[in-house]
Amino acid sequence: MEIYLVRHTETICEKGICYGQSDVNIAEPFDEIFDRIISELPSEAIIFSSPLKRCSILAKHIQKNIKTISYKEDDRLKEMNFGDWELKNWNEIPPEQLNSWMEDFVNIPVLNGESFTALHKRVGDFLAEQISQKIQEAIIIVAHAGIIRSILCHQTSLPLKEAFQNKVDFGQVIKIKY
Fold it and tell me: Which of 49, 122, 142, 157 has the fewest CB neighbours in a 10 Å radius?
């Protein structure tokens, strides 16, 4: 089956802000970018989206512009939970916390947040439940860079510590065979 992984477009957050599961809006104008994204997608698909508005706005636009077999928002597609770091500038995070996490982001959770392993597990649960059903139709997943990197790790068996080898730009569409 073909899966189209779509990262949301740029947000209104300034560069350097940690905004994982914070429900921030997308930057406008976005119509031209949305049209380009749609041109890279199949004309008919099942759509899954993170419920965070930076994804759901794009997913609902896609839903209106292609033949949609079904549309579902799933909490397991939310970006990494950065806990106490949400909406803080990366430079404001205490260095002892940040450095410890940077050395092992795979296993060390952010204070009151989660680790990349926890994110990867919920993505795996989503894939097992929603994608492993021998679906023949194309699937579009509108999500975040962390989620897309996790899916690519599931797909290629890339170790989680190497996940950032997968560059995922704002508004990028990545097509995979699953």
Answer: 157
Residues 6+ apart with CB under 8 A from 93: 18, 85
**For position 131, what pLDDT does the model report?**
83
- Residue 93 CA to residue 101 CA, distance in Å, equals 11
The CATH number of the domain where 76 resides is what? Answer: 3.40.50.1240
pLDDT tens digits, residue range 93-105?
999 999 999 999 9
What element of type H or E holds 72?
strand 67-73
Per-residue pLDDT tens for 46-93? 999 999 999 999 999 999 999 999 999 999 999 999 999 999 999 999
Structure tokens that stand for 88 in this block: 């803080």
Q: How many domains does the chain have?
A: 1
CA separation, residue 81 to residues 17, 33, 147 (Å) = 14, 27, 11
Is-cis flag, bond preceding 29, omega within 30?
Answer: yes
**pTM of the model as a whole:** 0.96
Range list of β-strands (E), 97-150: 139-143
